[in-house]
UniProtKB/TrEMBL annotation:
This is Coagulation factor 5/8 type domain-containing protein. Residues 723-856 form the F5/8 type C domain. GO terms for molecular function: hydrolase activity, hydrolyzing O-glycosyl compounds. The lineage of its organism: Bacteria, Bacillati, Bacillota, Bacilli, Bacillales. It comes from Cohnella candidum. Belongs to the glycosyl hydrolase 27 family. It comes from the Bacteria. Pfam families: F5_F8_type_C (PF00754), Melibiase_C (PF17801). One of its GO terms (biological process) is carbohydrate metabolic process. Keywords: Glycosidase, Hydrolase, Signal.
Length: 1027
């Protein structure tokens, strides 16, 4: 039986459709030919299409197929649903009566002239399964949903509009699948169709469930693509809405290389629903000559069905407390960081100072007052303040606490299982049941607090827990619906604030996407997976989710930018190249640039990344770069995409280039046509990090990168095309004398041979007092030295000094702790015939690939002007509680860009409860503290276990050289231990190594100060000046 209900057609077209079985769209008035949707029922075979795709359905069997440009891509699909608690599914192929009808809705949000085709399967029981397909002219996609009408109102737990035995692409020599994760606890992935590889794929995680690296189960959550990397053609299919259910796709591995998938299904799942009619969400199926364009259109179509939360402000740029301080982020530690950011980064566009988990409000104030006081302080500096919430999480300590304004406790609002037990999450906490009235009050109050405190940004973490299935207070609600209730409360509370508040999702499902401005693209950058570093993991997830930026969300969040990653301590901190790899990932990632490093301790070359105006201009665009090619990343272990690009203003294109190899050079070839540029036009290329103009290029360019190297190239019209001359490496080919060598293959001259695949290594067991001297053979003017340390599993050099020969002795230019694979040391120009790197101490035998020396016009940097570290010294660890120590010093120049203080930790079985603070103060006439002019803090785990020259960058200027100053070492909230164990330590000398000052001791938290050893005791420290 076939019925056509196209009652909105013109009379003639209606009669034609009835007579021929073809639904013809009215032509437009200007006479141009337009694509039409055609539907026909001929002898029980229903066909529908728009010229790009065609659906064919056999009403006698309940099966259908889909063709793309005349070639069948999906064969023998059927529809199905599953009753709760039943193993078997009810299928459209079961014995039933089937009918087809099509109508033209009066309006459609997806476009004009939409046609709705409905295929009904009526079982003998009276249950009706309806498959609805929505077709549009001039679109490469169709939409679909389904419903079940059952007189028994039996609960349904799965709806599957399309299940097929195969899915294939016409032609293709490199067919792959693109899969998306349930939440960013998991990962995007790409794999060959015949070898899905492995993954940690999963969905809701409960207590005790461990992530395991195992064969990929073929489940893509939310959306997937089958594509050919060679031709770029692809099929994109996924959830067009996520309002009623969770949504997924089931993929079956091909039986042969480039063969068809052995299974394919689109389905809704998650809990159950019952009623007279149970409906699915909408689904999207599209066919594209460029699958990347298909993913982008998919994002736009989803955004049409449920628009994302718009943001009219600028891209969030600023700082976040988490990675730099974790639980040591006290208000006392963060107030100085606010000052530092306001003074040095605010002029560059940095705006947000965001508190994360672990923040502790000001001591002595009630928590609520402390939060508001901190927000007020941030605002007083002309900045915005961000906060942190885990809105759907309930902690053990909360269970029996009452919920103000309700008769409930937090135990009452926990989600329960079928047996009434509280459900514990993968964090060991409890999940909130947002359908409970008490939970809704608690949630609204929690968000309203941040509104009342004046916060401008709110990070929502672990919100995947709001989507758990369980026995909800409202039994008619499933996990998706509960999640939407909770997120709706959060969104509506924020929107009612009367001022812009940015909402950002952290650990969160990809969909639904209408409740926040931004979402994290991946898991924490600090967490790697199966041989991928955390940086690589962030890079491939960010690259794979470019299409969500501006569609599902206003901005993607590629996590924080950390040039060094202090919190990992010596062993795991990033090298310079690794930090820059992350910078490329984040800057090209789509609209978040939050610093996660300890700002006052970042060396100049690492700080340069954060202050690079051309790089920040990319960030401020809020665009996400897409990969030129999508490797078989994650599932099959290939590296992340090496080439990404995004469109800038005025026709500019920015290209991110990264060599993910840790040992091999590479030369990346980039074709202009792949970037959407005219291959026959000339373009001017400029590298963003260095600012160097590379020249004019036609058709393509080749960019060499060392291991772990990265660059961002700006491609522009116009410009002279004249490339900048690179500075000459004055050390290249010069002889090198060393203290020792591992062997002839690792001799000193390897450091100046210009090759990164050769290196010098010290002799076995030589971990202290090693040195390398470069002899220029004649006096040379120098103001920059670059050291490229070899990093195996870890950094190797601990304490070092860079020295120059003044004709009679070596003079220290700079000192420090840790070098790295691209340590750039700028300094005031000196004339010398030799330089020496003195490696005072090393954790592993030192090994260096290259040392380079330059004279760069206009360059300069800080040099040592006062130093108490050149004679022997001792060490002691009593900095805790009320015990403080202060070094009195004077200044020879009016600036203090950098200082080194020799510190360590004495942890044995616990770590101090507070951070290690370093205050610079002015002094009164009795050399007691008068005014604090700088403060910084290092949390535990950041500090070496033996005395080391830890560099601090106060960047102070316009100081009074006639005054005395003090450097105070303290940890005021640490416990007063009975011994020197588990404390912060310092180096000192009783030999009066610094005659212009002396050390003082306070035992009462800085109220009074004592002079020790007759004023002959000094802390070991070094002062620098740019003057």
């Amino acid at each position: 039986m076939s019925r056509n209900k196209g009652r909105f057609f013109k009379p003639f077209m209606l009669m034609l459709a009835i007579l021929t079985g073809v639904a013809v769209m009215p032509g437009n008035s200007n006479g141009k030919t337009v694509a039409t949707v055609q539907v026909e029922n001929k002898n029980g075979i229903v066909t529908a299409g728009n010229g790009t795709y065609a659906l064919s359905y056999d009403l006698s069997s309940g099966r259908g197929s889909i063709a793309w440009n005349g070639v069948t891509v999906m064969e023998n699909f059927h529809s199905a649903y599953k009753l709760a608690g039943q193993e078997a599914t009810v299928r459209s192929t079961d014995p039933a009566t089937r009918t087809a009808e099509w109508t033209k809705p009066e309006t459609s949000i997806y476009g004009r002239d939409e046609v709705k085709l409905t295929i009904k399967t009526v079982a003998d029981t009276g249950a009706v399964m309806a498959l609805n397909v929505y077709l549009l002219p001039d679109k490469a996609y169709f939409l679909a949903d389904m419903s079940v009408t059952d007189p028994t109102a039996a609960p349904i737990e799965m709806l599957e509009p399309f299940e097929a035995a195969s899915l294939d692409l016409p032609g293709g020599s490199d067919k792959r699948v693109f899969t998306t994760p349930y939440s960013n606890n998991f990962d995007f992935g790409v794999a060959p169709v015949h070898d899905f590889g492995n993954s940690q794929n999963g969905a809701d995680r409960f207590e005790g469930e461990q992530l395991t690296w195992q064969k990929f189960n073929g489940i893509s959550h939310w959306v997937t693509a089958l594509f050919d990397e060679t031709s770029k053609r692809g099929i994109v299919a996924g959830a067009a809405t996520a309002k009623k259910w969770k949504s997924a796709q089931r993929l079956g591995e091909a039986q042969s290389e480039n063969g068809p998938l052995s299974a394919f299904a689109l389905y809704n799942w998650g809990g159950s629903q019952s009623g007279a009619v149970v409906e699915s969400d909408k689904f999207f199926v599209g066919f594209y000559d460029d699958y990347q364009s298909g993913l982008e259109e998919y994002g736009k179509v989803y955004d049409t069905g449920e628009p994302h939360l718009k943001w009219n402000g600028s891209v969030p740029m600023g700082y976040n407390t988490y990675y730099s301080h974790y639980n040591y982020a006290t208000a006392e530690a963060m107030y100085p960081m606010v000052d530092y950011m306001a003074k040095y980064l605010k002029p560059l566009g940095y705006e947000y100072f965001n508190l994360d988990g672990g923040f502790q409000p000001e001591k002595g104030l009630p928590s609520e007052e402390g939060m508001k006081a901190f927000a007020d302080y941030v605002h007083s500096k002309g900045l915005k303040v961000g906060g942190y919430q885990t809105p759907f999480t309930i902690y053990d300590a909360w269970l029996d606490l009452p919920i103000p304004g309700t008769p409930y406790t937090h135990r009452d609002i926990c989600l329960k299982d079928a047996n009434g037990n509280l459900i514990r999450t993968y964090l060991g906490t409890y999940a909130m049941d947002v359908t409970h009235p008490g939970a809704q009050v608690a949630l609204r109050n929690a968000i309203q607090q941040y509104v009342d405190w004046g916060f401008d940004y709110l990070k929502l973490d672990f919100i995947d827990m709001g989507m758990y299935e369980g026995q909800h207070y409202d039994p008619s609600v499933n996990g998706m619906q509960a999640y939407r209730i909770g997120m709706g409360i959060i969104r509506d509370t924020v929107l009612a604030a009367g001022r812009p508040i940015y909402l950002n999702e952290s650990i969160a499902p990809l969909l639904p996407a209408a409740f926040a401005h931004g979402r994290r693209s991946a898991c924490d950058t600090s967490i790697g997976v199966d041989g991928y570093s955390g940086i690589e993991r962030q890079a491939f997830n960010t690259a794979a989710s470019w299409w969500t930026n501006g569609t599902l969300y206003e901005f993607n969040d590629p996590d924080m930018i950390m040039p060094e990653n202090f919190t990992q301590g010596f062993w795991y901190k990033y090298t310079q190249n690794e930090g820059k790899q992350l910078a490329t990932t984040v800057a090209m990632g789509g609209g978040h640039w939050l610093i996660g490093d300890n700002l006052p301790f970042l060396s100049e070359e690492r700080m340069d990344v954060l202050e690079n105006k051309d790089l920040l201009a990319i960030v401020k665009m809020g665009k996400a770069a897409k990969p030129v090619q999508m490797p078989n990343v994650y599932h099959k272990g290939e590296r992340p995409p090496s080439v990404l690009y995004l469109q800038g203003g005025k026709g500019d294109v920015y290209v991110g280039l990264t060599n993910w190899s840790t040992s091999e050079d590479t030369r990346l070839t980039v074709k202009m046509a792949d970037l959407g540029l005219n291959p026959h036009a000339q373009y001017t290329l400029t590298e963003v990090y260095s600012g160097r103009t590379l020249g004019k290029f036609l058709g393509e360019f080749v960019y060499p990168l060392p291991p772990k190297g990265t660059a961002i190239v700006k491609i522009s019209n116009g410009g002279s095309g004249k490339g900048d001359n690179e500075p000459v490496n004055l050390a290249l080919g010069k002889p090198v004398n060393v203290s020792s060598s591992w062997s002839a293959d690792y001799d000193g001259n390897k450091m100046t041979d210009g090759l990164l695949n050769t290196r010098w290594s010290a002799a076995d067991g030589h971990t202290s007092g090693e040195w390398a001297e470069i002899d220029f053979g004649q006096p040379e003017r120098l103001n920059r030295v670059v050291i490229k340390e070899h990093k195996g599993s870890y950094l190797q050099i601990a304490n070092y000094a860079l020295q120059y020969w003044d004709g009679s002795r070596y003079v220290d230019l700079t000192k420090g702790f840790t070098v790295g694979d691209n340590k750039i040391i700028n300094f005031k120009t000196v004339t010398t015939s030799k330089i020496r790197l003195f490696m005072t101490s090393n954790y592993i035998i030192p090994s260096i690939e290259e040392i380079e020396a330059y004279n760069v016009e206009g360059n300069g940097g800080p040099v040592i002007v006062q130093d108490s570290s050149n004679s022997g010294y001792s060490w002691y660890s009593d900095i805790r509680a009320k015990v403080q120590r202060m070094q009195v010093f004077t200044l020879k120049n009016a600036d203090l860009p950098k200082l080194d203080v020799y510190i360590y930790e004495s942890y044995r079985n616990t770590v101090p409860a507070d951070a290690y603070y370093f205050d610079i103060v002015t002094l009164d006439e009795q050399d007691n503290p008068k005014e604090k002019i700088f403060s910084a803090s290092l949390p535990a785990y950041n500090i070496p276990g033996s005395d080391s020259a830890y560099s601090i960058y106060p960047r102070l200027t316009n100081l009074d050289t006639s005054k005395k100053y003090g450097l105070i070492l303290k940890s005021p909230s640490s416990v007063m231990t009975p011994t020197t164990d588990n404390n912060y330590g310092f180096a000192y000398s009783d030999g009066d190594p610094y005659p212009d000052g002396y050390e003082k001791l306070s035992l009462d938290g800085g109220v009074t100060w004592l002079t020790e050893n007759g004023g002959r005791r000094d802390l070991i420290f070094t002062l620098y000046s740019n003057e």
